[in-house]
Amino acid sequence: MNIDEIDAATLMPLETPPLKVSRPVAACSRCRNAKIKCDGKLPACSSCEKNGRAAECTSTNDQFARGKERSYVSTLETRIDKLQARLEEAKARKPSVVSIPDDETAVPSRRQSYNVPALEHSSTGGSRAQRRKEASAIDDLVSDFGFLSVNATARDFYGFTSAMSYARLILSACSKDPLPSGTTKELPPRYAAASLIQHYLNNVFTLVPVFEEASFYGSVDNTYAQDTRKADPFDHWVVRMVLAIASASMSEQRGDQHYLEGIGHVCAALSHAEGVLNPGSISSVQALVMLTEYAMLDPHHFDSWSLIGAASRAMVDLGLHTDPPKGTPMTKGKLDLRRRVFWCVYVLDRSTSLVQTRAFSFNDDSVRVKIPFTKAPAVLPASTNKPGLQKPWVQSHEQALDLIHLRQIQSGWYTDLFQSGRTTWDEPYHYLWQTCEAMRKWFENISVTTNPSMRAFFELELLYSYIYVLSPSPRVPAISPFAAKLIFEYCIRYADLMLRLIDDANYTPPLTFYDAMRVYMTGRQFLDVLQHNTDPLLNGHIPPHPEVKPTTAPPPAMPVVNLPPGDTLQRFNTIRSIHCVKQISECLAKFGMRWGYMSWNQRYQSEAASMLETLHLRLREFDGIVAARRPSMWHASSSASSVTSSSAASQAYRSPQSLTSSSAVHRQPSITAHHMASFGDSGPAPQVTPPLYYHQQAPSQQPPMQPWETQTSFFEPSGGQAFSFGQPVSQPGRSSAHGNPNLQFANWGGYGGASSVPDTLDEENAVPPNAQSWNA
């Protein structure tokens, strides 16, 4: 609107401003000098009007110095001039807002936008679609201005500086250590990038399919096209981030070739951040999700918690947490993309919150989104089970669907146990048994097409969830002996499986920094439950489970392991406990080499020192009793046994490939689809031979056996089966450090734990030693 076209009615509020307008100053200059009361009316106070000094009535403010005040009318005139100048500036800047600048050209400043040629301006607004794009860009620009002050005595808001943008704000808030300069990696040849892309699609994309596979290959084609103008910033971003995530997931040690290549690709992707990280677009949420995936593999440079929080807030702002109402004009492709992006954010947000024991970015009650993925039937009809109808080049989303279902279960019990209050439940175990039963059924119903590596990945998630649910929480601060026994067995299985997956070259799903935190928390919980229940756990007795209503789900069946011939329960469980502590320590050592956090292993060894001392003392007592019962120390069989026992202390951990099927060492059964009966099967099972090593309590002290208490048999895995439980029992060496393992499982405080003394051997750990407290 032109200033000449404004009528008198429009100008009426400016000509006769309200008289009762509050302002931050106490009095005008005349009343302040005369030391009389000033009512502060505008445009002149009552005292100045009464004495004919209305034109001289001025007030001080923070924009003009004392003695150089300007009147209210002059201030409004100055503001009109500024707004007119800003309006002309916005009109001249329209072409530069909607056009995407070249990567090699600098972004013109605000002053330079005055010199935009008229021809370019006329060509920009030619089409209707271009005008809509201009209007959208202007709306985004205006939304960044914030609240413009209209108070005459307040300081004007001149907008953000030229160096501020949404991308810079996100990267500044979510970055930790600065990326090394000069490490940007050139785009590799397409044949070299093909293997990295396939590795990402097979192991990461199957779990978090944040983009459509067809659109991704279109971005690859645009990026590698001879015409560089075909690729937009998002094409460069998604291709570079896929290469970065794949390279980082293949890294075995911080600083190796794969690690450096991942950093090089991330640096190349960040050069396009200004064109990708923009508020109000789904592609920006996709970009943040991919950056979160990389942060889980490189915790030194990016904070995954801040990134997934930014992605969640951007997702909620776009309304992706609810499906659009019926009748909304929207294509099926766009609707599927909305749903796909939401569930990817959901999976990462739940995983991050659980491992760092923080609140969710959004609750499940606000979610109204249908899952866009479906699971193929176990047996396809004969008419559809034809090779010509299958698409082997398209990744299946069945693993992503299984992971979403698990995250939904985890979100439910985490909210109920840790985020819904501090009131203790009187009868908590009917809820805990139902939760464990739901997770057991989930594992039984995972897709039949899941490969062994992904099945092992889900197996780790199941064991970790069992330990998390059964551990002390605000709702259940004191656990029952039966739950303590379950935690004891699940921790041993988790440590055994994790160590073998780390060493197994055939295990392809990436091990992230979250796995290191899970191992540390599991190890602490193992020490805590063992310290408070040393004798009951090592004696091997199964305590009675807490009484629940008959209609409640049955408690989980106790995992059982066959007792080696000639051994005793106490000695065997003592060796298993020592072996578990050593496995957890070795996992932390390997993860420390991978990510540079060596202090975690040192801290855990210090905390486990007192318990290891107790376990070794018990083991020496058991060995002394056995030696006293021998008829002669020179007996041939005794000599052989002593040699075997002494060599066990220095026996190295062997990988699954080195364990033959004929090995006589103890092997723990795997939680596979064939063995799931041991995790909650309520039906009876035949007795196995040799007998189970658990001794039941006397009938007079134990209630009648329930169906779920009947022990089930395990099948010995074949030599070629991957990820089967079992390692040769060895005795770890003593630790000279001392610590207190009596700490809660859920008191995890983030990347850094509590430490009274700074760790001089872990100089790369940027987290302050006392940043978090385990007892908080």
Automatic annotation (TrEMBL):
GO cellular component, one term: nucleus
Superkingdom, natural source: Eukaryota
Subcellular location: Nucleus
Domain Zn(2)-C6 fungal-type: from-to ranges: 27-59
GO process terms (BP): DNA-templated transcription; positive regulation of transcription by RNA polymerase II
Coiled coil: none
InterPro entries listed in its UniProt record: XnlR_reg_dom, Yeast_MetPath_Reg, Zn2-C6_fun-type_DNA-bd_sf, Zn2Cys6_DnaBD
Region (Disordered): 99-132, 675-776
Predominant location category: nucleus
Record keywords, A-Z: DNA-binding, Metal-binding, Nucleus, Transcription, Transcription regulation, Zinc
GO molecular function: DNA-binding transcription factor activity, RNA polymerase II-specific; sequence-specific DNA binding; zinc ion binding
Polar residues composition bias: residue spans: 110-127, 727-745
Pfam families attached to this UniProt entry: Fungal_trans, Zn_clus
PANTHER family: TRANSCRIPTION FACTOR, PUTATIVE (AFU_ORTHOLOGUE AFUA_4G12570)-RELATED (PTHR47782:SF2), ZN(II)2CYS6 TRANSCRIPTION FACTOR (EUROFUNG)-RELATED (PTHR47782)
Protein name: Zn(2)-C6 fungal-type domain-containing protein
Organism: Hortaea werneckii
